[in-house]
Specification:
alpha+beta; single chain; 2 domains; 5 helices; 3 strands; 34% helix
């Protein structure tokens, strides 16, 4: 075993079958990736290789592409919704994860989220009555400003 391992750099026949197959598939993966204007991701490269008669798992193509530093193009833009300010004072957490109430209007909780649409992101704020578990106020806005959360509360 030791001498086989030492002979690998000099003798390509001593390499394990997986490494031999990886070398062959890496060349084909690179070829398919380059032929398609470096935009194909692992799934499309895998499908193209299958059409050409290569049999392998998709995770193998993902592993080989990751090892070669190849990446497909992703659609859309990434929306960063939170920019934390470490110096800002944090509000007191009054609910303490106790989302129960014994009567209506005893406890309200509010939250907001972003929703991806065809033209970009919109932000939705809502206020929920914990007892009834119903939304009692909501507001939609195209920008993430604190005022629209207050509008939902009103």
């Amino acid at each position: 075993m030791y001498y086989t391992h030492k002979a690998r750099p000099r003798n390509l026949d001593c390499t394990p079958p997986r490494l031999q197959r990886d070398r062959e598939l890496s060349k084909e993966t690179r070829r398919v990736y380059d032929e398609n204007f470096p935009v194909y991701g692992a799934r499309k490269v895998w499908r193209q290789l299958r059409r050409e008669g290569f049999t392998m798992a998709r995770c193998t193509v993902e592993r080989l592409m990751r090892a070669m530093g190849l990446q497909g193009v992703r659609r859309g833009t990434r929306c960063r919704t939170t920019v934390a300010d470490g110096r800002a004072e944090r509000p007191v957490h009054h609910v303490n994860r106790q989302f129960t109430a014994t009567r209506p209007n005893q406890r309200w909780v509010a939250d907001f989220t972003s929703v991806a649409t065809g033209i970009g992101f919109v932000y939705v704020a809502f206020v929920v009555d914990v007892f009834a578990r119903r939304i009692i106020g909501w507001r939609v806005a195209s920008s993430m400003k604190g005022e629209f959360v207050l509008d939902a509360l009103e």
